Amino acid sequence: MKKIGFLSFGHWTPHPDSQTRSARDVLHQSIDLAVAAEEIGADGAYFRVHHYARQLASPFPLLAAIGAKTSKIEIGTGVIDMRYENPLYMAEDAGAADLISDGRLQLGVSRGSPEQVIDGYKHFGYDAPEGMTMADVARNNTETFLQVIDGARFAEPNPRPMFPNPYPGALGIEPQSPGLRDRIWWGAASNATAVWAAEAGMNLMSSTLKADESGKPFHVQQREQIDLFRDAWKEAGHEREARVSVSRSIFALTTDEDYRYFGFDRDTDDQIGTIGGDPIGRAIFGRSFAAEPEALIEQLRGDEAIAAADTLLLTVPNQLGVEYNTHVMENIIKHVAPALGWR
Predict the structure, then answer these.
(1) Which pLDDT tens digit goes with each residue over 272-324?
(2) Average pLDDT taken over every residue of the chain
(3) Both ends of the chain: CA-CA distance in Å?
(4) Which domain of life is it from (predicted)?
(5) Using the 8-state DSSP alphabet, how is residue 236 labeled?
(6) CA distance 253 to 111
């Protein structure tokens, strides 16, 4: 059994062929798609976060809105770039959004992906102190965020406060949302950061690309990353069971519209590339899947990383609209998942 959700990049562009021609369109349709996904039995609605782009950016208003319109589905990010975040303000936003959704937030955080601009975090007021990199800053911000959502008290109270303090001694961030600390995921692009995430007690979110560390097929490298994460989790002695998600582009071809959009994507292979200016360097990108359900089942049966994960996020082409993307998810849930034991 697996949890199956969608991952939307939240693109919008003022083009006549796009169903999301404005930021307003993509925000409203993201809410509608989450509602539709819940209705067809999907388990999660996740959203990418990108700055300086015609894509979804600040996630918490959207997550809170979805939380207010749904009742079961998990609501998450994949991922929030922690180079851009004030961890204390983010903790307040996250606590409020989690309470609105009655504890359904699943926040993916990370160092972030390559940017649209050079050193964009500097315009947000952040930079690396001497002797540190922005990757260090992202990890430090994440550690602070984890501490404060876990109830850390660190601020000296004013002896003459405007309102009575709720308890004696140092104060912490409010609101607190019980259980949120266990629902934070780290987007790991390398084996080393997957191990670090396990040691820090975060779930693992592994995307459609990772550092090419062995030359093996993508799904094998990703499964090895998952194994290292789980070994490190066990070694760290955490009491709860860790969760692991992987992302895939998967399209079951059942209608003329499916063939028109994705019929040409059949039998694609992993791709090797270099992410310029990124410490990942040489990266491997996982293949896309597009085939008739019977063929798709056999292809996916051999994916070692999907087999090792408990959560599968389907990347959706959000610019094709809510109705079509609901159909994409329903195809997988009805025609593919049962045969693979995911449902």
Answers:
(1) 887 655 555 789 999 999 999 999 999 999 999 999 999 999 999 999 999 99
(2) 95
(3) 5
(4) Bacteria
(5) H
(6) 35
Residues 6+ apart with CB under 8 A from 223: 304, 305, 307, 308
Is the separation of the CB atoms in 190 and 207 below 8 Å?
no
Structure tokens at 96: 């409020």
Whole-number Å distance between alpha carbons of 140 and 85: 11
For strand 209-211 and strand 282-285, is the pairing parallel, antiparallel, or unpaired?
antiparallel
Domains along the chain with CATH numbers: 3-340 (3.20.20.30)
pLDDT classification of 267: cutoffs 50, 70, 90:
low
pTM for this entry: 0.95
What's the angle, vertex CA 13, arms to CA 49 and CA 125, rounded to 5? 40
- Token readout for 179 is 């259980």
Query: Is residue 224 predicted with pLDDT exceeding 90?
Result: yes
Give Cα separations from 268 to 37, 217, 263, 322 (angstroms). 27, 13, 11, 26
Mean pLDDT confidence for 83-90: 98
Using alpha carbons, list the distances in angstroms from residue 188 to 111, 114, 234, 331: 9, 14, 18, 29
